[in-house]
Amino acid sequence: MELDNINPSVLHVKPSAMRKFDHDISVDPDIIKLTLGEPNFDVPEHIKAAAVKAITTNCSHYPYYWGFEELRQAASTYYRDKFGYHYSADEIVVSVGATEALASTVKTLFKPGDAVIIPTPAYPLYGALLTLNQLKPIFIDTSDSGFVLTPEKVQKAIADHPESTIRGLILTDPNNPTGVAYTQDQIAALAPVLKDNHIWVISDEIYGELTYGQDHYTISKYLPEQTIITNGLSKSHAMTGWRLGLVFGPHPFIDEIAKTHQYTVTAAASLVQYAAVEALTHGQNDAAVMKAEYQKRRDYVVTHMTAAGFDVVHPGGAFYVFAKIPAALHMDSWQFVKTLAKEYHIGLMPGDPFGDNDYIRISYAASDEALAAAMKAIKQMVADKSRNVSKTAER
Amino acid sequence: MELDNINPSVLHVKPSAMRKFDHDISVDPDIIKLTLGEPNFDVPEHIKAAAVKAITTNCSHYPYYWGFEELRQAASTYYRDKFGYHYSADEIVVSVGATEALASTVKTLFKPGDAVIIPTPAYPLYGALLTLNQLKPIFIDTSDSGFVLTPEKVQKAIADHPESTIRGLILTDPNNPTGVAYTQDQIAALAPVLKDNHIWVISDEIYGELTYGQDHYTISKYLPEQTIITNGLSKSHAMTGWRLGLVFGPHPFIDEIAKTHQYTVTAAASLVQYAAVEALTHGQNDAAVMKAEYQKRRDYVVTHMTAAGFDVVHPGGAFYVFAKIPAALHMDSWQFVKTLAKEYHIGLMPGDPFGDNDYIRISYAASDEALAAAMKAIKQMVADKSRNVSKTAER
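The joint structure predicted for all components is written out below.
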């Protein structure tokens, strides 16, 4: 059979360069990885206990595809109290992680040929999902506005693309990879231009609980009828490998997303759903301990990276530092991370898959020892390679 | 926002009528359900213990998107020993249940506009997946050939649809809803016509371990280069709610399916993958106990349904009896199951969503007590309603 004969949308999309790089460097037994967005914390004990109980009491059967009613009720209350979401249980679908939440939402809301705005740098999944669904990405570079999307930039994108029907925007707040957390004013300012132009916002709020010195503001407060929120327990409760996501939105649209979800995965695993009920009813403070640690580590990484000569975006949330490679190194992001992995046994993410080849991303959801080793290695590499560059230049 | 403006493929597909009916009748506290294809057995203890260990030892992190190497190795050996599959670990992807295995496979292999054969009656998911992916279903009725797809029927479908590019066939063996298990000759006979016409077979073998008095034969033995197998642990290890599926196929195509899978769900839940390693390394005989029970129940149900006046397909596998409603009742499948649920508190599946409105499906993956109550109620209803029909006719 001819490979050329399969779905061209699948053929044209590339596997995640991030995860491949992470996988490839993992063969090095000495590697210290600050690559994936994965908390180094364990799942809180009370949630683990709930999962164990679900297993030992044989709660192993098919959940209804929307997810357990009890879980959706718990999510309704939890996120109302946390961020002011206003969604009842029948406006919430339980998904297989935030990835499936995004995949089912993108597949449902847009028609082949529709255009969708992605502010960059951005999590690479978004672009891949657009390609897979025959949608047209319109990338908006935010590096000249503090990595914040502004209404002016949206307006300009609309004006610059008269040939396209722009029907959506994927907004990530707090942002991955930059760590930027939007202020209330910045979020509120976006609503009118999106409303006037009938643009759906898919609001990826997976890092919502991880903001430092400021609150998280959801655009659904300003634009409820045009917002679909994707969220989940991977970051707030350190449950990355458990795959528990949530989709929130106006009922008739959530009803459609639920269908796509059903025919994609049937339902999220039942034992994980029981654990999630526990997380959302008694785990309101689970993120607080992690958050305090993350904030210390953020400050540590920002300080050291700045001292090493990197321009650093000041991160108000998430657990990433996005840092501009010193020009003296004459390296793009792939050269930098490959050299650092090979010669110094430290794994970082290149900025290229996020849309900016001059930056590297550091996940500081890692131990203090790992961060100290990474900072030391990065400083060393900058020193070594700047010397080399100078020497080469001298020849 | 206008609902009409979303993806028409999603808008046109209906939510699963099966699961909705099951959900709706569940409000009756007295209902005894033989509806979903769900074992009434619990997950074997050694598998539960492995899952608990994964939780308590904090194995909660992202697995690589293909699935753990150890799990794919275990699957390679397990299914080679069971059914003669010949796939190495790099020809196997771990999915979120068989549903996601099918969804990612259909999405990857076919281009919008391609036609795919579905022999009917069939599991309704298949048709929905074709609609969602802008594919054209070509339904082949198998009720006049003992519910077995023959090469002649494939040939005729090709001749009858000169306007279509038929690029796939979704084969379910053992079959849901009929319980028919193909013989080796029947499977072997299909290979040449599929080979000659370059038709992919998506071979859904989820009930492969549940055959009675005969072996399971995989078409991949005869057509390895054109077969993608979907399988999983839901039925063989009673792990329905755990969502662990597997996709097997030639490497370059599995590589493409893995991409779709990655961008749909990231990966199957890590703790479930650890449990699956245990199932596939030490659970070779887990299905045997269930199978012996199922076979007794099958015989019991077939005997009683035949006595009650139903024409019954003799099931060689799975755990369903597909039975033709006696003509004297003058009822279609929805009328039958709704009356039985409302007046007699027994839940069965209508044949209509499977493509045959004259039949009902009974899942005998249920307790002896439930089956006895169901048989009694069905006999009673046939007696009651046949009397009514006669009385009405007399007036």
